[in-house]
Amino acid sequence: MQKNQVRKAVIPVAGFGTRLFPATKVVKKELFPIIDRDGRAKPVIIAIIEEAISAGITEVGIVVQPHDREIFEDLLKKPPKKELLKKLSPQNQEYSRYLEDLGSKITFLLQEEQLGYGHAVFCAKDWVQDEPFLLMLGDHVYASDIQKSCASQLLDVYEQVNQSVVSLTTKPAEILHTAGCVTGVWQKLNSILEVTQLYEKPTIEYAQQHLRVEGMADNDFLCIFGLYLLSPKIFDFLAEHINQNLRERGEFQLTSSLDRLCQEEGITGYVVKGKCFDTGLPDTYRQTMIDFRNF
């Protein structure tokens, strides 16, 4: 694909949060609090937006359910009432202004029906247009092992390879049923991979037979870390699946379209130097609350 500066990030947040029910009946999971290194309690979505901005992203599209739009606008577009703002500490008053600055970079994109993650991504098509874009999960936050943020690392690899890039991390076989998994050929050992197949939530048996990567331990596999740098061509494959009503587990998924993109344009895998924190399950959210601040 033609190399373009990556300006836009897409964050789908239109899911129901069923795995965190009943808390998500009253609070969107993307608004659950985490504690950052400064000891500030912030909604998960803020940490995700900050990750995007750290990589030089200038516009962020958040895919929401129509009736949730106002909740996110209250957070990102509207300052507190004056009488409430006065009660905040000077530091928090400054942070309120910072949130408004973040909000100026946000566009809300509507998913009228909740038809799966792939469908949510497709709802960003007209906004993204013909540009490469950063795709981020709405319930994952990241901490880098090096000076560059995790998202910045991904964009650096895109600059090198000029094709779609998926972020990777190593996971044991027993949790493959919860993750997207890839296989391929190392271009740079334990760092950069020419991806040959992507597969969503494989069985251990399937992974051992089809998803092994040379040089990795028998029980280890390469799984999606939660960040993607994608060519706009992905929308063609998503549209095809939607128009032909090709669903997986009752919904339109992303991974099968990623596999099509891999076969047609090629995809590079990059093993991120950092850690991904999952806030979408009760136990992993609890662990994130413990670990994220101190990582």
Automatic annotation (TrEMBL):
Gene3D superfamilies from the xrefs? Spore Coat Polysaccharide Biosynthesis Protein SpsA, Chain A (3.90.550.10)
**Can you give the residue ranges of the Nucleotidyl transferase domain?**
8-288
Q: Which Pfam families match?
A: NTP_transferase
Q: Name one GO molecular function term.
A: nucleotidyltransferase activity
According to its UniProt record, the EC number is 2.7.7.9
Alphabetized, the UniProt keywords read: Nucleotidyltransferase, Transferase
Family per record: Belongs to the UDPGP type 2 family.
Name of this protein: UTP--glucose-1-phosphate uridylyltransferase
Q: What is the lineage of its organism?
A: Bacteria, Bacillati, Cyanobacteriota, Cyanophyceae, Nostocales
SUPFAM superfamilies with a match to the protein in the record? Nucleotide-diphospho-sugar transferases
Organism of provenance: Nostoc flagelliforme FACHB-838
Q: Which InterPro entries does this chain map to?
A: GalU_uridylyltTrfase_bac/arc (IPR005771), NTP_transferase_dom (IPR005835), Nucleotide-diphossugar_trans (IPR029044)
The catalytic activity, as recorded, is: alpha-D-glucose 1-phosphate + UTP + H(+) = UDP-alpha-D-glucose + diphosphate
